[in-house]
User: Fold F-box domain-containing protein from Brachypodium distachyon.
Amino acid sequence: MAPPPRRRDSPQELPDELIVEIFLRFPLDEPSCLLRASLVSRRLYRAVSDPFFRQRLHELHRTPPALGFLHNRDDEDIPRFVHSTASAFPLAAPDDHPSWEVVVDCRHGRALFLIHYQVARELLIWEPITGAQHRVPVPAAFENLCPTAAVFCPVEGCSHYNCIGGPFRVVFVFAVDDNDEAKFFTSASVYSSETGTWGEVTRILNRAVCFSSPYRSSVLVWRSLFYFMADGSDILEYDLDSHALARLESPDPYTDTFSLMVAEDGGLGVCKVSDPQQLKLWSWQESDDDDTDGQWVLSRVIYLGNLLPNGALPLSSLSKRVLFFAEVANVIFVTTDDGVFTIELQSERAKKVCDHHFWCLVPVVSFYTPLRLLNLSEEAGGEEGGVKEEKTVERAHQLFGKGTNAVKEGDFDHSFINHDLKTRSVSNEESVMGTSSKDDAGNSKISGSNIMDAASPSEKGDSEEGSKLNSDKN
Assistant:
């Protein structure tokens, strides 16, 4: 009788530290790479879902990418979130998002919706990465007309790489019509999630400062000054420290096509398409004289004809509008006759995001990492021992060389995942059977996480939902 075939020695496992270093170098424009890697095994899942991994991402790359944008277009065929990355990835959408929920802001890992926009009675704060939601009632005393709002993290010194789930505040700005005196008051108040209360209302007597168009933008400057683009040429300033309101005029008081942005020096800026082929940027320069107001200075002109394809250039500037500036990512979203494009201000590189047209969009800027499940049981046993250090280092150098070549060839994520699958095929195979199930058609489904459920189209590749995501982008 022939002896049983000898089992091959299993390849040596890579140290977790090296796996993390490899994952940290995945392209930020390919968030689905981390998602697919997390589905290979529990070990890889723990590596990319650990909060420390998100911190390392921030330390290495510093600037988070613009993942895409939320919009207010009432079209069931267009997802509420449109990704601007090279590959699609899932987000846990709010439970319901009817047309009367208007998104007005997204900052520090949270998106902000106004419920019943014209007279807001409730605010919805939603974390795109985790899917967590908070609903905040607007006090009846805030008899508001055409309001707007902004959300931010209030933690002093926070780098905002991992303030998901932490405290937040909302600046709520609205106009009140005093019928007795036929006057308008522009008012503001701040809600704190830490206390669950609204702060004192600040108001200024002014001409009507309203926000009747939901595509108006807001920016946070120097961590203490919020600016809101109002109707007409008004820009409203709210000081988070003094809770004072002030009003500025845009560079041209006779046009309302400006959008707010952060200038190159970190101060307040605005931008607009003043010519079919010119995107102009202004910065606000404070005056050294207390008796003299500051002034707008034209700081830069970007010629869109050099960046966009010929078919994207409109016949007039009215058919192209700067929509929104993505804070931190330093990207401007522009709508054209050919769809929506992003323009990186540092490199002046343009990229087409989608074919659809939007009059309102709110960029989502964040590092994307899979979530750590609270109910996922840990694997039994510890790390395999007895691996010689010199062999581990040798294999690490070999894998690093392969990874470098794969990055150059644009196939890094597939190369590494294939390596891990090969390792598992001859060693103790890991299983997630405890969290998986099958439907009547026999398709596998991961339960216990909205991220894992939403990831199945990425794994199937040719599934109907995955095809829909790709078609939305193209």
Summary: Residues 389-409 form the longest helix (21 residues). The first strand starts at residue 66 and ends at 71. Helices lie at 16-23, 31-38, 42-49, 51-61, 389-409, 412-425, 450-460, 464-473. The radius of gyration is 25 Å.
